[in-house]
Design brief:
The chain is an alpha/beta fold. The protein is built from eleven helices and 13 strands. Strand 1, helix 2 and strand 2 form a beta-alpha-beta unit. The chain is globular. About 8% of the residues have low confidence.
Length: 264
């Protein structure tokens, strides 16, 4: 029995030592991601990445701030959850982080549990939008694109409800944490929801949305690293695999509803 326990302890020590060496030797890439579709895509390419002699550690986050904080403090080596307008939202992020490649677009859309079309939305409907400036602006642009409001000509990507100059149906707006929008949908008439959170909530982008972002969206989801690590061999290998025809086919076959669209 003692010999068996000794062997088990030795095996556990060797496994821990090997993992430690792999991290120390720079073979492990710890990448932060939101669960869908980002972590799902990363799990798909994991075996191909590891076949190149590296190890992929996927760290899941459920909000939009922590992945950048973790990347800056070195807890992770890269992240995959955001688009460039969001990355440029804070000076700290711009100073320390950089996009290395784009992967896909998740069309932003307006959803409702109470109404089936935008024409059914009553005057004065309360519409929820993300509370971060970038995605709040994205919501305003989506509403303007579909003729629900008109914004100041110079409002740009950071538009807010204060930039509305025409609101013929007198819609009201409330800002919520992006991750809370699907659950908050029952308390409002409609909500503009990011693609990844809509996916997690079980929405079908094409079938369930009232209006949806066009294919020319500037909000491409990107892989981000700390400045100076753009040419890290792990990132080079990750880019090659993530932007491969195999990954593109996986995305197209997995999200047939158009909720995730590859850009490569």
């Amino acid at each position: 029995m003692k010999q068996l326990i000794f062997r088990l302890m030795a095996a556990m020590f060797l496994m821990a030592f090997a993992a430690s060496c792999q991290k120390k030797d720079g073979l492990e890439l710890a990448i932060g991601a939101t669960p869908q579709p980002h972590a799902e895509i990363l799990n798909f390419i994991k075996s191909d990445f590891e076949a190149k002699g590296f190890k992929l550690k996927i760290v899941e986050f459920t909000d939009y701030v922590a992945p950048n904080s973790a990347l800056i403090d070195g807890s992770i080596d890269a992240n995959f959850f955001q688009h460039i307008p969001y990355l440029e939202e804070r000076v700290e992020w711009v100073e320390n982080l950089v996009s290395v490649f784009g992967v896909h677009v998740e069309p932003f859309a307006l959803y409702s549990l109470k109404y089936k079309t935008i024409d059914e939305l009553p005057n004065g409907t309360l519409i929820a939008i993300p509370n971060d400036p970038t995605n709040g602006g994205r919501a305003m642009l989506l509403l303007e694109e579909n003729g629900l409001v008109k914004l100041k000509p110079n409002a740009g990507l950071a538009a807010t409800e204060h930039d509305i100059i025409e609101n013929p149906r007198e819609f009201n707006f409330v800002a919520m944490e992006a991750a809370a929008l699907p659950s908050g949908l029952r308390d409002v008439g409609a909500a503009c929801i990011n693609g990844n959170f809509a996916l997690q909530a079980g929405f079908n982008t094409k079938k369930d949305s009232l209006i949806i972002e066009g294919a020319a969206s500037p909000y491409v989801n990107i892989v981000v690293v700390r400045k100076g690590n753009e040419n890290d061999p792990r990132i080079t290998a990750l880019k090659e695999i993530m932007l491969s025809p195999k990954t593109r086919d996986f995305i197209n076959k997995t999200w047939t509803d158009g909720s995730v669209i590859p850009v490569f």
